Amino acid sequence: MSNEENALKGFLTKYKYRDFTSKEVTSLIQVYRGLTYRLEAFVFNNGARKDLLNLEGTIPVNYKGAYYNIPVCIWLMDTHPQNAPLCFVKPTPDMSIKVSKFVDSNGKVYLPYLHEWKPNGSTLQNLVQCMITAFGELPPVYSKPRNEVRAPYPAGPFMPQPAGYPYGQLPGPPKQPQYPTPVQLPGPPNQPPYPTPSPYPATSNLPYPNFGTPYPGPANMNGTPYPPNFAPATSYGPSPDVAGGTITEEHIKASLLSAVEDKLRRRLNEQSQQSQAELETLRRTQQELREGKTRLEDILGRLQRERTDLDKNVATLQEKEKELQSAVERLGGQEGIDVDEAVVTTAPLYSQLLNAFAEEATLEDAIYYMGEALRKEVIDLDTFLKQVRTLARRQFTLRALMHKCRQKAQLAC
Prior knowledge:
By secondary structure, the chain is of the alpha+beta class. It is 45% helix and 11% strand. The chain has 8 helices and 6 strands. α1 packs across α2 (18-31) and α7 runs antiparallel to α8. Mean pLDDT is 76; it is low at 148-245.
């Protein structure tokens, strides 16, 4: 057992499957070196606190051929792997969360792999791989805008307009393309094409890449200094210092308009995508509320039916209670009743059956008390056997008589 695994087990003393969790976490951090673990207090939605193992760090995400480190944290339940982990995107101060079908506004991650988590088949490595695949499709974060603003460069076929970048390393200093004149202007960054905002989370809030400190020299109409050897033209034609140059005020205006249009278009797409994601979340919430409403209506209907049945039963009991009270009052005013006359049969056959049943019951009691007398040595064994033989013979005769009477009366035997 490695020292890493031994140290990890010290954090997992309250975990139900400590050995299994320790091996799986050790295997995961060996593959994804950007993840580390520590024991922290996790507060659930109901306010309960529990010390859980937190895997925190970055995972490499391949987005359009370039890799970016996405900050995440994975909380392991103390019943792991019986219950699925809780995964969150944890943006740094210069990042913001991009809401999508995989990430909500709080950074919580929603994946089919988590929803269909299987204790005997799901693993942390497969979970991280699913997160990498999902984030490669829809990046979960984007960089916040900077305070500085750069004047856009003249647009042309050689210079794509930046559309923002998901979180990651911005490319290095750009190459400067050559104009037909000896003057060199800052060109496009030497980097892969910028991702378009749709259908991915918008990242258009990023400013243009920082190419360094502004050039010294005269300022243009926006107050931004011109590059060296590029003085403002005294007319709408080419600059006298740039022989054969093609940069005019019309070009600058067209560039500004194009930059503004692109920025507005990107922001509109960003707002549209964010609104669609929020609308989808509201639709899911609405569906859940409707399902909850249906369940509550079923429960209320069942309770109403049970209450109706209970009211009927209470009314029946009250009526029976009144009948009993009337019977008690009626019997209380009568004289003593002869036991033999208390029950009157409707036919002689039923009277014979009733008498036989009563006599058979008395014989049963007599045999029981004969046995008690023998046990207490009140009578001897010979007397017991003689009396029991006589009583049993009479009991057999009575039972045969009752059976025959039942058959005649067509009663159940």
